[in-house]
Amino acid sequence: MADEAETPKVEEEKADETEKKPVVYEGCAAGKYNWDDAKKGENADKDIQGEAITKYSWADGKKLVSIYIELDGLDDVADDALVVDSSEKAVSLTITSIGGKKRRFAISGLSE
């Protein structure tokens, strides 16, 4: 009977040891779940107000692809302030001055 009383204590100690171990992620997930601080309800694009245009949509046709970009004040930009460059595997649009900022949209690595 003394052995039966000691057995639950050993199991309880094992359970305590497993609870105290921190979760360690390895490989690709190592940085995925480690955030410095959680921020809720803030504008996710606040830190990229400068150069990159990341919000766009596109439509795929039979021979052409259309890219749609909406920005505040885009209708007021002069045509000579828009610079478009395209090749077989890349496309870019540069707006030299919109709201006092230079903005750029670019996609590279396109396939045929």
Describe this structure in words.
This protein is an alpha+beta fold and about 110 residues long. The chain has 1 helix and 5 strands, in the order H-E-E-E-E-E. The mean pLDDT is about 75.
Keywords:
single chain, 112 residues, alpha+beta, 3-stranded antiparallel beta sheet, two-stranded antiparallel ribbon, 1 helix, 27% strand
SS strand fraction: 25-35%
Which outline best applies? extended
Q: Strand-and-helix sequence, N→C?
A: HEEEEE
Per DSSP, the total helix count is: 1
Average predicted confidence as pLDDT: 75
Structural class: alpha+beta
* Uncertain stretches: none
The biggest sheet amounts to: 3 strands, antiparallel
Trace the largest sheet across and list its strands: 3-4-5
Helix-residue proportion: 10-25%
Radius of gyration: 27 Å
Multimeric state: single chain
Ends apart, CA distance between termini:
77 Å
Topology:
Layout: H1 2-20, E1 57-60, E2 65-68, E3 82-86, E4 90-98, E5 101-108
Antiparallel strand pairs: 1-2, 3-4, 4-5
Quick overview of this protein structure:
By secondary structure, the protein is an alpha+beta fold. It contains one helix and five strands.
